[in-house]
Amino acid sequence: MAKPRVLVTRRWPAAVEARLSEIFDVQLNLADKPLAPEDFRAAMQEYDAILPTVTDKIGAPALELDRPHTRILANYGVGYSHIDLNRVNEHGIVVTNTPDVLSECTADLAMTLLLMVARRAGEGERELRAGLWTGWRPTHLVGTKVSGKTLGIVGYGRIGQEMARRAHHGFGMTILVYNRSPVAPEVLAQCNAAQVDSLDELMPLCDFISLHCPGGGANRHLIDARRLDLMRPDAFLINTARGEVIDEAALSHALWFDSIGGAALDVFDGEPNINPQLKNSDRLVMLPHLGSATREAREAMGFRVIENLEDFFAGREPRDRVN
Ligand code: 8YV
């Protein structure tokens, strides 16, 4: 039987590409640039499986087809708000993602951001590299203590829980949780966490707020001007979820007028383009979507995609099917 034809839209770790090529008839995108919607649409007429990433916007233009040939979109990443599931479902295409394997590394990065913004690490590094450091002084780049403070977690899924573990067991932080559905008491108990009923209730209670909810329509601008206003003036906002969850214009306004202590973002609305207003604030730490960027996580994500594909083409239900 012919091997299924598989398109990988970006370059992946070498070990994963090698394994994929052993099992499937693989086409790599050697240019390693995001596919244009028309190229994606053409690929949907040719490949049995497409392996997209967050840089593939799979919506109306890419899916304007009567009967696509592609039967599975096996996403490389846990978040899939870049895929318009309603349209994909109209074509009966299966979508899978890669949960679990990147949770620890993404939580590690959220903790990195939290520490960087509280301890002004980005400002310090910029100053030093610019040759502007004049030496130690008691009032130089004084930040905020992290240990023992209150952390609010928005979205208590796998990554949110890993973040809570780090913050509670490593830094003695008090954990408050906002989650759409009730979290099991035994799960909350692992970090002595308390769930609050609404996001509005959570915002003013926290020294730090870290976002771990999905992106996409329902959560677009979940953190808007009104909710930023509910934060304490010395509190920090951390985002390793999706850029669209924060109204970035409202955030830059809040930073400009000192109505919050600072923010640290790994993801941006419309990335890699960055709202220029954001760059005006020194109290904002920005990283280029590094959440899962470790050798270990990126390989594990790839092998998880392979597992999903093997199941699918063997006629089994892929373990990470999301639709
Ligand atoms: C991925 C992520 O690397 O998994 C996710 O949802 O945000 C990233 O860590 C990226 O999305 C690749 O598709």
Automatic annotation (TrEMBL):
Enzyme class comes to oxidoreductase
Q: D-isomer specific 2-hydroxyacid dehydrogenase NAD-binding domain: from which residue to which, for each copy?
A: 111-291
Per UniProt, residues of the D-isomer specific 2-hydroxyacid dehydrogenase catalytic domain are: 8-323
SUPFAM superfamilies, per this entry?
Formate/glycerate dehydrogenase catalytic domain-like, NAD(P)-binding Rossmann-fold domains
**A GO MF term:** oxidoreductase activity
- Enumerate the InterPro entries for this protein: D-isomer_2-hydroxyacid_DH, D-isomer_2_OHA_DH_cat_dom, D-isomer_DH_CS, D-isomer_DH_CS1, D-isomer_DH_NAD-bd, NAD(P)-bd_dom_sf
A family per Pfam:
2-Hacid_dh_C
Instruction: List the keywords (alphabetical).
Output: Oxidoreductase
Q: What is its EC number?
A: 1.1.1.-
Query: What stretch or stretches form a coiled coil here?
Result: none
Classification via PANTHER family: 2-HYDROXYACID DEHYDROGENASE-RELATED (PTHR10996), GLYOXYLATE_HYDROXYPYRUVATE REDUCTASE B (PTHR10996:SF283)
Q: Can you tell me which family this protein belongs to?
A: Belongs to the D-isomer specific 2-hydroxyacid dehydrogenase family.
Q: What is this protein called?
A: 2-hydroxyacid dehydrogenase
